[in-house]
Amino acid sequence: RETQRKTRDTHDTIAALREEAANCRACPLWKDATQTVFGEGPQNASIMLVGEQPGDKEDLAGKPFVGPAGEMLGRALRDAGIDRGKVYVTNAVKHFKFVPRGKIRLHQKPGTTEIRACRPWYERELAVIKPELVVALGATAAQSVLGKIMPINKNRGRLIDHDNTKVLVTVHPSYLLRLPDEDARALEYRHFVDDLTIAATFLR
Ligand code: URA
Predict the structure, then answer these.
(1) What string of DSSP letters covers the chain?
(2) Residue 138 CA, closest ligand 1 atom number
(3) Which of 34, 38, 49, 52 to mutate to test the pocket of ligand 1 (most atoms within 8 A of CB)?
(4) In the chain, how many domains are there?
(5) Domain Uracil-DNA glycosylase-like: where (predicted)?
């Protein structure tokens, strides 16, 4: 078994990890979700983006950030000079957590237990991609990546050294979508793009 594990670890590819993660039972979220939503992007990406968890659209599509938050993220990446196709995009938690509310499935924030249960997948993605920078989008991603709760506003936009990886913490694109005031949203959007512009210096 040990030999098997060693072989597996050194020969991991994202495709193999995705296949393995499809049957993940490390926490109960798999029961109600449609499927595991694994990370996606080039295996030689120099930047890895980490979100919170798949939303309704992602759960159905099986791909990360394809819904409204994904649209917002794509626009901000473009404005920061980052081609989304060049970065690896994943989530801290790889199953959609929700409660049914009539016809809709209402997003529920993942808890520490689910974040911890899912972290081995992030670790194995990290081992395969070996990015020069990890960007944590929002508090859940920051908690998973850094292994502790970190206030976003105090720590955003600077490079943090963690376990031999450079980490940049910023807000989650959904936060921008939730701001009711248009001026505040525009201001926060620019701040988000500023943070991503720091990330852009890690493109290669
Ligand atoms: N929000 C996330 O954090 N990740 C997704 O994939 C979609 C929405």
Answers:
(1) -HHHHHHHHHH--HHHHHHHHTT--SSGGGGTSSS----BS-TT-SEEEEES---HHHHHHTSTT-SHHHHHHHHHHHHTT--GGGSEEEESS-S--EEEETTEEEE----HHHHHHHHHHHHHHHHHH--SEEEEEHHHHHHHHHSS---HHHHBTSEEEETTEEEEEE--HHHHHH---HHHHHHHHHHHHHHHHHHHTT--
(2) 3
(3) 52
(4) 1
(5) 38-197
